[in-house]
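Worked example 3 (structure in, sequence out).
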């Protein structure tokens, strides 16, 4: 399940956390919130960021007459 968690501290600091995303999708999916909330001051990337997204590979068998 994909989630974007927004936490607001008592002093107004806002923290975004993404869960369930692989690779750079987390940054793309939360981009709209960053544009609304303002400048980013710190970015901590989780191990899921470094996971490559799976790409379907089609394999063809060579056919000879």
């Amino acid at each position: 399940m994909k989630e974007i968690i927004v936490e607001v501290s008592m002093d107004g600091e806002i923290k975004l956390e993404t869960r369930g995303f692989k690779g750079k999708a987390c940054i793309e999916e939360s981009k709209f919130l960053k544009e609304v909330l303002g400048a980013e001051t710190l970015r901590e990337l989780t191990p899921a960021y470094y996971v490559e997204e799976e790409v379907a590979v089609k394999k063809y068998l060579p056919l000879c007459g």
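Notes: Residues 30 and 48 are 15 Å apart (CA to CA). The helical segments are 25-37.
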